[in-house]
Amino acid sequence: MKRILLLGALCMGAAIGHAQDATGLLGEVFSVKRIVKTNLVGYAFLSVNANYEQKTGPNTSVGLLAGYKLPSTIHVEAIGNLDGENQTYSGDVEPKGIFVNPYFRYYTAQTFKGFYMEAFLRYFNYSYLVPYDYDKNGGTIHANLDGTASAFGGGLALGAQFNLAPRVYLDINAGFGVATGSAHLETSDPNLELADYQSIKRNIEKYQDRADVQVFLLGDILKDPTAVADDIHAEADFKNKIFPIVRGGICIGYAF
Questions:
Q1: What is the rounded distance in angstroms from the CA atom of residue 223 to the CA atom of residue 239?
Q2: CB atoms closer than 10 angstroms to residue 63
Q3: Scanning 4, 69, 105, 150, which has the fewest C-beta atoms within 10 Å of its C-beta?
Q4: Contacts of 192 (CB under 8 A, 6+ apart)
């Protein structure tokens, strides 16, 4: 009788152990390995975006945030000193274009849950129009400069991610970094002629070494341009400018 009870206990223990192994295996199979999110803060700035995060280890993940910035009005102000006289410029621009933000995360507790540290990269390529006025023949011509700007950089961020529901996650983060970028401005107005374009070029070259122009939010992007002009257009390039970048958001996502 004792042998029968012992054998039964051993069989029950084996069955329980097997069930636990099976539960662990199923948990591993159905555990969260990826999250698809979107940054709610981005929509406030008309940036349509998607964020994919993939688990790579017990405490690590990699991800990619990408999107498109829809045209939105940004007021730009500039102030400088040219030949001892203060000059100011203000106008509205509407940048639009793509942005890409890959990142790597280390979670202090476990992947996808709790606090994390992040290293990120950022690339963007925007286009925009810059309004300007040009005096000619006693009148004023209202026109636009065609502009493009692109930059690449990176930085560090801190954040936290939490469960709102079994498959729903909230991700909050903020970070800071540095980028280097270039901008291109060009005008080709049918109301202007070769002499006008050459005058624009001379003015750029004349003042670029003596100007101390700062564009708020963009640093010194208007300093040291390279100017070109012919009979159909004038253009200026601002290359390898260094400026700060900020990363932040409140993301909502679904895990699977």
A1: 9
A2: 20
A3: 4
A4: 134, 136, 141, 143
Query: Does 143 lie in the same domain as 23?
Result: no
**Cα dist from 154 to 69, 123, 187, whole Å:** 19, 9, 32
Residues 120 and 167 in one domain: yes
| Beta pairing class for 234-255 and 168-187 | antiparallel
Phi and psi of 138, rounded to 5°?
Answer: 75, 5
Give the residue among 252, 251, 192, 180 at the shortest CA–CA distance from 221.
Answer: 180
Per the structure, the count of domains in the chain is: 2
How would DSSP label each residue in 134-197?
EEETTEEEEEEEEEEEEEEEEEEEEEEEEEEETTEEEEEEEEEEEEEEEEEEEE--TT--HHHH
What tokens were used for 47?
């940036």
Give the pTM.
Answer: 0.74
8 A C-beta contact, residue 104 and residue 119: yes
Domain, as residue range, for 77: 33-255
Residues 38 and 124 in one domain: yes
Are residues 242 and 160 part of one domain? Answer: yes
Question: Does residue 102 share a domain with residue 81?
Answer: yes
